[in-house]
Design goal:
Number of helices: 13
Shape: elongated
Radius of gyration: 27 Å
InterPro entries: AI-2E-like
Strand content: under 5%
Order of helices and strands: HHHHHHHHHHHHH
Main location: membrane
Pfam family, one: AI-2E_transport
Mean pLDDT: 76
Largest sheet: none
Number of strands: 0
Distance between the termini: 37 Å
Low-confidence stretches: 350-354
Transmembrane segments: 12-30, 36-54, 66-88, 144-163, 198-219, 225-249, 261-284, 296-324
Keywords: Membrane, Transmembrane, Transmembrane helix
Length: 354
Protein backbone atom coordinates (compact mmCIF):
# COMPACT_ATOMS: atom_id res chain seq x y z
CA UNK A 1 0.00 0.00 0.00
CA UNK A 2 1.44 3.37 -1.04
CA UNK A 3 2.34 5.84 1.72
CA UNK A 4 0.85 9.32 1.26
CA UNK A 5 3.93 11.13 2.60
CA UNK A 6 7.06 12.04 0.71
CA UNK A 7 10.43 11.07 2.25
CA UNK A 8 10.98 14.70 3.32
CA UNK A 9 7.54 14.87 4.95
CA UNK A 10 8.17 11.62 6.79
CA UNK A 11 11.49 13.02 8.01
CA UNK A 12 9.85 16.23 9.27
CA UNK A 13 7.00 14.30 10.93
CA UNK A 14 9.48 11.95 12.58
CA UNK A 15 11.34 14.88 14.12
CA UNK A 16 8.06 16.49 15.20
CA UNK A 17 6.94 13.21 16.80
CA UNK A 18 10.22 12.86 18.68
CA UNK A 19 10.06 16.45 19.94
CA UNK A 20 6.39 16.09 20.88
CA UNK A 21 6.95 12.90 22.86
CA UNK A 22 10.04 14.40 24.51
CA UNK A 23 8.04 17.48 25.50
CA UNK A 24 5.23 15.31 26.88
CA UNK A 25 7.69 13.28 28.96
CA UNK A 26 9.35 16.44 30.29
CA UNK A 27 5.96 17.84 31.23
CA UNK A 28 5.03 14.65 33.06
CA UNK A 29 8.36 14.49 34.89
CA UNK A 30 8.58 18.23 35.63
CA UNK A 31 8.18 17.85 39.40
CA UNK A 32 10.98 15.27 39.45
CA UNK A 33 13.32 17.19 37.12
CA UNK A 34 15.53 18.24 40.04
CA UNK A 35 16.22 14.55 40.79
CA UNK A 36 17.64 13.98 37.28
CA UNK A 37 19.60 17.25 37.37
CA UNK A 38 21.04 16.40 40.80
CA UNK A 39 22.00 12.91 39.58
CA UNK A 40 23.81 14.40 36.59
CA UNK A 41 25.67 16.90 38.78
CA UNK A 42 26.70 14.20 41.26
CA UNK A 43 27.83 12.02 38.35
CA UNK A 44 30.24 14.76 37.30
CA UNK A 45 31.37 15.37 40.90
CA UNK A 46 32.12 11.71 41.67
CA UNK A 47 33.35 10.61 38.23
CA UNK A 48 37.04 11.38 38.93
CA UNK A 49 36.81 9.10 41.99
CA UNK A 50 34.99 6.49 39.90
CA UNK A 51 37.63 6.60 37.14
CA UNK A 52 40.47 6.31 39.68
CA UNK A 53 38.95 3.29 41.44
CA UNK A 54 37.25 1.41 38.59
CA UNK A 55 39.27 2.19 35.45
CA UNK A 56 42.73 2.53 37.00
CA UNK A 57 42.70 0.25 40.05
CA UNK A 58 40.16 -2.21 38.58
CA UNK A 59 37.88 -2.26 41.62
CA UNK A 60 34.44 -3.83 41.36
CA UNK A 61 32.20 -1.23 39.71
CA UNK A 62 29.08 -2.24 41.59
CA UNK A 63 30.77 -1.95 44.98
CA UNK A 64 32.25 1.42 44.04
CA UNK A 65 28.84 2.64 42.86
CA UNK A 66 27.14 1.50 46.06
CA UNK A 67 29.88 3.23 48.06
CA UNK A 68 29.25 6.48 46.16
CA UNK A 69 25.52 6.20 46.85
CA UNK A 70 26.16 5.63 50.56
CA UNK A 71 28.54 8.61 50.60
CA UNK A 72 25.85 10.74 48.92
CA UNK A 73 23.30 9.78 51.56
CA UNK A 74 25.70 10.35 54.46
CA UNK A 75 27.12 13.66 53.21
CA UNK A 76 24.03 15.22 51.62
CA UNK A 77 20.70 13.58 52.43
CA UNK A 78 21.09 12.90 56.16
CA UNK A 79 22.59 16.33 57.07
CA UNK A 80 19.85 18.20 55.17
CA UNK A 81 17.16 16.07 56.82
CA UNK A 82 18.67 16.47 60.30
CA UNK A 83 19.13 20.23 59.91
CA UNK A 84 15.57 20.67 58.60
CA UNK A 85 14.18 18.73 61.55
CA UNK A 86 16.19 20.77 64.08
CA UNK A 87 15.17 24.07 62.49
CA UNK A 88 11.51 23.07 62.43
CA UNK A 89 11.68 22.05 66.10
CA UNK A 90 13.31 25.37 67.04
CA UNK A 91 10.67 27.25 65.04
CA UNK A 92 7.86 25.36 66.77
CA UNK A 93 9.31 26.25 70.18
CA UNK A 94 9.45 29.95 69.23
CA UNK A 95 5.90 30.18 67.89
CA UNK A 96 4.49 28.17 70.81
CA UNK A 97 6.24 30.46 73.32
CA UNK A 98 5.68 33.99 71.95
CA UNK A 99 6.66 35.55 75.28
CA UNK A 100 10.32 34.85 74.49
CA UNK A 101 10.10 36.85 71.26
CA UNK A 102 8.04 39.57 72.91
CA UNK A 103 10.67 39.86 75.65
CA UNK A 104 13.40 40.39 73.05
CA UNK A 105 11.31 43.05 71.28
CA UNK A 106 10.64 44.78 74.60
CA UNK A 107 14.35 44.80 75.46
CA UNK A 108 15.21 46.27 72.04
CA UNK A 109 12.60 48.98 72.53
CA UNK A 110 14.03 49.83 75.94
CA UNK A 111 17.59 49.95 74.61
CA UNK A 112 16.82 52.04 71.52
CA UNK A 113 13.85 54.07 72.71
CA UNK A 114 12.07 53.20 69.46
CA UNK A 115 8.58 51.70 69.56
CA UNK A 116 8.71 48.75 67.20
CA UNK A 117 5.12 47.54 67.48
CA UNK A 118 2.24 47.29 69.88
CA UNK A 119 2.41 44.23 72.10
CA UNK A 120 -1.04 43.09 70.97
CA UNK A 121 -0.07 43.42 67.31
CA UNK A 122 3.15 41.48 67.93
CA UNK A 123 1.24 38.74 69.73
CA UNK A 124 -1.29 38.50 66.88
CA UNK A 125 1.56 38.34 64.37
CA UNK A 126 3.19 35.51 66.32
CA UNK A 127 -0.12 33.65 66.52
CA UNK A 128 -0.50 33.99 62.75
CA UNK A 129 3.06 32.68 62.39
CA UNK A 130 2.14 29.71 64.56
CA UNK A 131 -0.79 28.96 62.32
CA UNK A 132 1.43 29.27 59.26
CA UNK A 133 3.99 26.89 60.77
CA UNK A 134 1.20 24.40 61.48
CA UNK A 135 0.16 24.58 57.83
CA UNK A 136 3.78 24.12 56.77
CA UNK A 137 4.07 21.03 58.93
CA UNK A 138 0.90 19.62 57.37
CA UNK A 139 2.30 20.35 53.91
CA UNK A 140 5.65 18.77 54.79
CA UNK A 141 3.92 15.67 56.12
CA UNK A 142 1.82 15.33 52.98
CA UNK A 143 4.84 15.92 50.72
CA UNK A 144 7.13 13.54 52.60
CA UNK A 145 6.37 10.81 50.07
CA UNK A 146 7.27 13.19 47.23
CA UNK A 147 10.62 13.98 48.89
CA UNK A 148 11.35 10.29 49.30
CA UNK A 149 10.49 9.71 45.63
CA UNK A 150 12.79 12.53 44.49
CA UNK A 151 15.72 11.30 46.60
CA UNK A 152 15.10 7.69 45.55
CA UNK A 153 14.88 8.65 41.89
CA UNK A 154 18.10 10.65 42.18
CA UNK A 155 19.96 7.70 43.73
CA UNK A 156 18.45 5.24 41.25
CA UNK A 157 19.47 7.44 38.30
CA UNK A 158 22.96 7.96 39.72
CA UNK A 159 23.36 4.19 40.13
CA UNK A 160 22.61 3.50 36.48
CA UNK A 161 24.69 6.44 35.25
CA UNK A 162 27.74 4.78 36.80
CA UNK A 163 26.81 1.16 36.09
CA UNK A 164 26.00 1.99 32.44
CA UNK A 165 28.68 4.66 32.13
CA UNK A 166 30.01 3.56 28.74
CA UNK A 167 26.60 3.30 27.11
CA UNK A 168 25.53 6.61 28.63
CA UNK A 169 28.55 8.51 27.27
CA UNK A 170 28.27 6.82 23.86
CA UNK A 171 24.57 7.66 23.77
CA UNK A 172 25.27 11.32 24.45
CA UNK A 173 27.68 11.53 21.54
CA UNK A 174 25.35 9.55 19.27
CA UNK A 175 22.08 11.37 19.87
CA UNK A 176 23.05 14.95 20.70
CA UNK A 177 23.17 17.07 17.50
CA UNK A 178 26.72 18.33 17.95
CA UNK A 179 30.10 17.63 16.42
CA UNK A 180 32.71 15.75 18.43
CA UNK A 181 34.71 18.90 19.18
CA UNK A 182 31.54 20.69 20.31
CA UNK A 183 30.73 17.81 22.65
CA UNK A 184 34.24 18.10 24.10
CA UNK A 185 33.71 21.83 24.70
CA UNK A 186 30.34 21.24 26.36
CA UNK A 187 31.83 18.50 28.54
CA UNK A 188 34.69 20.79 29.61
CA UNK A 189 32.20 23.56 30.37
CA UNK A 190 30.13 21.16 32.49
CA UNK A 191 33.21 20.04 34.43
CA UNK A 192 34.37 23.62 35.03
CA UNK A 193 30.92 24.77 36.15
CA UNK A 194 30.47 21.88 38.56
CA UNK A 195 33.94 22.38 40.03
CA UNK A 196 33.36 26.09 40.50
CA UNK A 197 29.77 25.99 41.77
CA UNK A 198 29.68 22.72 43.73
CA UNK A 199 33.16 22.18 45.09
CA UNK A 200 33.94 25.89 45.18
CA UNK A 201 30.59 26.80 46.74
CA UNK A 202 30.96 24.03 49.33
CA UNK A 203 34.32 25.52 50.34
CA UNK A 204 32.81 29.03 50.53
CA UNK A 205 29.91 27.75 52.66
CA UNK A 206 32.29 25.90 54.99
CA UNK A 207 34.47 29.00 55.47
CA UNK A 208 31.46 31.27 56.05
CA UNK A 209 29.78 28.84 58.44
CA UNK A 210 32.99 28.41 60.43
CA UNK A 211 33.52 32.19 60.66
CA UNK A 212 29.87 32.68 61.67
CA UNK A 213 30.11 30.03 64.39
CA UNK A 214 33.33 31.53 65.74
CA UNK A 215 31.81 35.01 65.68
CA UNK A 216 28.76 33.88 67.64
CA UNK A 217 30.95 31.96 70.10
CA UNK A 218 33.15 35.00 70.72
CA UNK A 219 30.02 37.16 70.99
CA UNK A 220 28.54 34.91 73.67
CA UNK A 221 25.51 33.74 71.66
CA UNK A 222 23.96 30.51 73.00
CA UNK A 223 24.50 27.32 70.98
CA UNK A 224 27.03 28.75 68.48
CA UNK A 225 27.91 25.31 67.07
CA UNK A 226 24.33 24.67 65.98
CA UNK A 227 23.96 28.10 64.38
CA UNK A 228 27.35 27.71 62.72
CA UNK A 229 26.10 24.53 61.04
CA UNK A 230 22.93 26.38 60.04
CA UNK A 231 25.13 29.11 58.53
CA UNK A 232 26.99 26.53 56.42
CA UNK A 233 23.75 25.51 54.74
CA UNK A 234 22.41 29.07 54.57
CA UNK A 235 25.63 30.17 52.85
CA UNK A 236 24.55 28.33 49.70
CA UNK A 237 22.06 31.19 49.21
CA UNK A 238 24.09 34.08 47.72
CA UNK A 239 24.20 37.32 49.75
CA UNK A 240 21.12 36.51 51.88
CA UNK A 241 22.48 33.36 53.53
CA UNK A 242 24.61 33.99 56.59
CA UNK A 243 23.01 37.38 57.49
CA UNK A 244 19.90 35.36 58.34
CA UNK A 245 22.01 33.82 61.15
CA UNK A 246 24.34 36.51 62.48
CA UNK A 247 21.80 39.33 62.02
CA UNK A 248 19.24 37.94 64.52
CA UNK A 249 22.14 36.87 66.77
CA UNK A 250 23.34 40.49 66.97
CA UNK A 251 19.78 41.62 67.70
CA UNK A 252 19.50 38.98 70.44
CA UNK A 253 22.69 40.18 72.15
CA UNK A 254 21.65 43.80 71.83
CA UNK A 255 18.29 43.02 73.43
CA UNK A 256 20.06 41.41 76.38
CA UNK A 257 22.24 44.44 77.01
CA UNK A 258 25.39 43.05 75.33
CA UNK A 259 25.85 46.06 73.07
CA UNK A 260 29.57 45.55 72.50
CA UNK A 261 28.99 41.93 71.49
CA UNK A 262 26.13 42.94 69.18
CA UNK A 263 28.27 45.59 67.47
CA UNK A 264 31.14 43.09 67.15
CA UNK A 265 28.87 40.49 65.55
CA UNK A 266 27.47 43.04 63.09
CA UNK A 267 30.95 44.34 62.25
CA UNK A 268 32.30 40.83 61.67
CA UNK A 269 29.28 39.93 59.54
CA UNK A 270 29.31 43.07 57.41
CA UNK A 271 33.07 43.45 57.01
CA UNK A 272 34.40 39.87 56.99
CA UNK A 273 31.72 37.23 56.41
CA UNK A 274 29.81 38.97 53.59
CA UNK A 275 33.03 39.99 51.82
CA UNK A 276 34.31 36.43 52.06
CA UNK A 277 31.18 35.42 50.14
CA UNK A 278 31.64 38.10 47.47
CA UNK A 279 35.37 37.70 46.99
CA UNK A 280 36.03 34.00 47.60
CA UNK A 281 33.04 32.80 45.55
CA UNK A 282 34.13 34.74 42.45
CA UNK A 283 37.84 33.92 42.97
CA UNK A 284 37.13 30.19 43.19
CA UNK A 285 34.79 30.29 40.20
CA UNK A 286 37.61 31.81 38.16
CA UNK A 287 40.38 29.69 39.69
CA UNK A 288 38.72 26.26 39.80
CA UNK A 289 36.59 26.44 36.67
CA UNK A 290 38.01 29.36 34.66
CA UNK A 291 34.52 30.89 34.61
CA UNK A 292 34.05 34.62 34.16
CA UNK A 293 32.59 36.24 37.32
CA UNK A 294 29.74 37.79 35.30
CA UNK A 295 28.71 34.33 34.06
CA UNK A 296 28.64 33.12 37.66
CA UNK A 297 26.54 36.03 38.95
CA UNK A 298 24.03 35.98 36.07
CA UNK A 299 23.80 32.20 36.29
CA UNK A 300 23.13 32.25 40.03
CA UNK A 301 20.25 34.71 39.64
CA UNK A 302 18.83 32.79 36.67
CA UNK A 303 19.22 29.37 38.27
CA UNK A 304 17.68 30.27 41.63
CA UNK A 305 14.67 31.81 39.90
CA UNK A 306 13.98 28.73 37.75
CA UNK A 307 15.31 25.70 39.64
CA UNK A 308 15.59 26.77 43.28
CA UNK A 309 18.63 25.68 45.31
CA UNK A 310 19.94 23.34 42.60
CA UNK A 311 20.01 26.36 40.28
CA UNK A 312 23.26 27.38 42.01
CA UNK A 313 24.87 24.89 39.62
CA UNK A 314 22.37 24.64 36.77
CA UNK A 315 22.11 28.42 36.24
CA UNK A 316 25.81 29.10 35.52
CA UNK A 317 25.85 25.91 33.44
CA UNK A 318 23.03 27.22 31.22
CA UNK A 319 24.85 30.52 30.68
CA UNK A 320 28.12 28.68 29.95
CA UNK A 321 26.41 26.37 27.46
CA UNK A 322 24.78 29.35 25.75
CA UNK A 323 28.16 31.03 25.29
CA UNK A 324 29.78 27.77 24.05
CA UNK A 325 27.03 27.18 21.49
CA UNK A 326 27.22 30.81 20.30
CA UNK A 327 30.96 30.36 19.76
CA UNK A 328 30.35 27.09 17.88
CA UNK A 329 27.71 28.82 15.72
CA UNK A 330 30.14 31.65 14.91
CA UNK A 331 32.97 29.24 14.10
CA UNK A 332 30.92 26.95 11.86
CA UNK A 333 29.37 29.85 9.95
CA UNK A 334 32.81 31.31 9.40
CA UNK A 335 34.04 27.93 8.10
CA UNK A 336 31.00 27.71 5.80
CA UNK A 337 31.69 31.18 4.38
CA UNK A 338 35.34 30.31 3.79
CA UNK A 339 34.34 27.07 2.01
CA UNK A 340 31.77 28.94 -0.11
CA UNK A 341 34.34 31.55 -1.06
CA UNK A 342 36.80 28.79 -2.04
CA UNK A 343 34.19 27.11 -4.25
CA UNK A 344 33.35 30.41 -5.93
CA UNK A 345 37.05 31.01 -6.58
CA UNK A 346 37.21 27.60 -8.28
CA UNK A 347 34.18 28.42 -10.42
CA UNK A 348 31.85 25.98 -8.60
CA UNK A 349 28.33 26.73 -7.28
CA UNK A 350 28.39 28.22 -3.79
CA UNK A 351 26.63 26.86 -0.70
CA UNK A 352 24.90 28.54 2.19
CA UNK A 353 26.10 28.80 5.76
CA UNK A 354 25.41 26.00 8.19
Amino acid sequence: MENIYTPRQRHVLLIASILGLAGLMLFGLAQYLTAFLAAGILFVVFRPLWVALVHRRRWNRQLVTIGILVLTVVVLVIPFYALSSMLINRLIVFVQNPDQVLDVLHRVEQATGVKLTEQQNARELLQQSAGQVSRWLTTLASSALNVVLVVGLMLFTLYYLFMQETYFLIGLRRYLPFRAETMDELGESLKNTVQANVLGQALVALVQGTLTGLTLWIGGVPDPLFWGVVAVFMAFIPMLGTPLVWGPAALYQFAHGEKAAAIGILAAGLIVIINIDNVLRIFLAKRMGDIHPLVTLIGLVLGLEIFGIIGLVVGPLLVSYFLVLMEVFRRENRAARVAAAAREAEGKPGGGAV
